[in-house]
């Protein structure tokens, strides 16, 4: 009978040995564990037969079965470790990075040409001690026109076809309202020295006009400011922006908020002044409007025109960019065509 016990256990052991060698992955190994050591497994089944044995054989049977169980558990554990290592190294093989493969190409974003020009303008004026301010694009009629010396029915309002929201509110047609807002915020402190870049809106749409475009306003107010200061600042700006050797020409003009007023031309950046298609043969390109701040504008903003003077200027950023980059159609700035944008 005792031999029978040994045989039974031996058979179980060899069965187990075969199975474990055939278990090639963790899943098969787990099935094996359940089959032999699980609650309804072989060991449990044998354990149940113990009652049928003669009493004196039971302890030996139990002992052998337990020994087998422990040995089997150990073997399962070490096989599991083995398989896990194999698994990991297989995965490593599969996922190993080949550093020699070419990378996936991707497109790098870049700044819009108008952003580049704005930043350049801001940089130049910052270096001259100007503060950069921003104002609302939806503006009161008061700031856009009234305080700039353009009362209702003033003919100069027709110079700019406006988008009105209601009778008091409109999309600003220029950045000049920021002259008033800046002075109101500063008064009575001196000096006022600001530039204000931003979007402006007009009912215009062709090769050189867009219903939305960008301007930079400049304003300096202090004791003893003269037109010579205006000329000096603008000349410095021009030469920083377009290169040494550029000349400026001031032409008498009219703006309700400046007196005297001037339109400013630079010597043509294409032909240098001899005359070409870009400058229409004149040798000059108009780049901005400017003038000495009108006494009434100073007054409504909280400064005494008897004590202080100022100059102001306003230029179109698209215009500067078109000249600098040789772009002929303003609409190219807004079409988001990568072939265009990638060039800057
Ligand atoms: N705001 C004017 C326009 O949009 C430009 C301008 C002219 C601004 C003269 C000024 C200035 O500050 O002094 O046409």
Protein described:
There is one protein chain. With 344 residues, this protein is α+β, with helices and mostly antiparallel strands. It folds into two domains: 2-95; 113-341, Bira Bifunctional Protein, Domain 2 (BirA Bifunctional Protein, domain 2, 2-Layer Sandwich), CATH 3.30.930. The protein is built from eleven helices and ten strands. It has a seven-stranded mixed beta sheet with strand order 1-5-6-10-9-8-7. Strands 2-4-3 form a three-stranded antiparallel beta sheet. The protein is rod-shaped, with a radius of gyration of 43 Å. 3,4-dihydroxyphenylalanine binds at residues 174, 176, 217, 255, 258, 289-291, 312-314.
Please name the defining characteristics of this protein.
single chain, 344 residues, alpha+beta, BirA Bifunctional Protein, domain 2, 2 domains, three-stranded antiparallel sheet, 10 strands, 20% strand, rod-shaped, binds 3,4-dihydroxyphenylalanine
């Amino acid at each position: 009978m005792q031999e029978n016990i040994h045989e039974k256990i031996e058979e179980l052991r060899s069965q187990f040995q075969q199975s474990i060698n055939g278990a090639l992955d963790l899943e098969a190994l787990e099935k094996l564990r359940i089959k032999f050591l699980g609650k309804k497994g072989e060991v449990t089944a044998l354990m149940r037969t113990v009652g049928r044995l003669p009493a004196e054989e039971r302890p030996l049977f139990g002992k052998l079965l337990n020994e087998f169980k422990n040995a089997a558990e150990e073997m399962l554990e070490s096989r599991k470790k083995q398989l896990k290592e194999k698994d990991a190294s297989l995965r490593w093989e599969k996922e190993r990075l080949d550093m020699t493969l070419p990378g996936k190409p991707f497109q790098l974003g870049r700044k819009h040409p108008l952003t580049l020009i704005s930043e350049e303008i801001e940089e130049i004026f910052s270096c001259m001690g100007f503060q950069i301010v921003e104002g609302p694009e939806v503006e009161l009629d008061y700031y856009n026109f009234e305080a700039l010396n353009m009362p209702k029915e003033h003919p100069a309002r027709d110079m700019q076809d406006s988008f009105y929201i209601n009778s008091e509110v409109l999309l600003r047609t220029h950045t000049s309202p920021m002259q008033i807002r800046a002075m109101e915020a500063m008064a009575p402190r001196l000096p006022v020295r600001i530039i204000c870049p931003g979007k402006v809106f007009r009912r215009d749409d062709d090769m050189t006009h867009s219903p939305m475009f960008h301007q930079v306003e400049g304003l300096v107010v202090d004791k003893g400011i003269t037109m010579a200061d205006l000329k000096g600042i603008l000349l410095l700006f021009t030469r920083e922006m377009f290169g040494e050797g550029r000349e400026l020409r001031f032409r008498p003009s009219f703006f309700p908020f400046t007196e005297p007023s001037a339109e400013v031309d630079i010597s043509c950046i294409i032909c240098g002044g001899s005359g070409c298609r870009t400058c229409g043969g004149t040798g000059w390109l108009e780049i901005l409007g400017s003038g000495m701040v009108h006494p009434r504008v100073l007054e409504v903003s909280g400064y005494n025109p008897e004590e202080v003077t100022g100059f102001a200027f306003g230029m179109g950023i698209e215009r500067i960019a078109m000249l600098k980059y040789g772009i002929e159609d303003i609409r190219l700035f807004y079409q988001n065509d990568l072939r265009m944008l990638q060039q800057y």
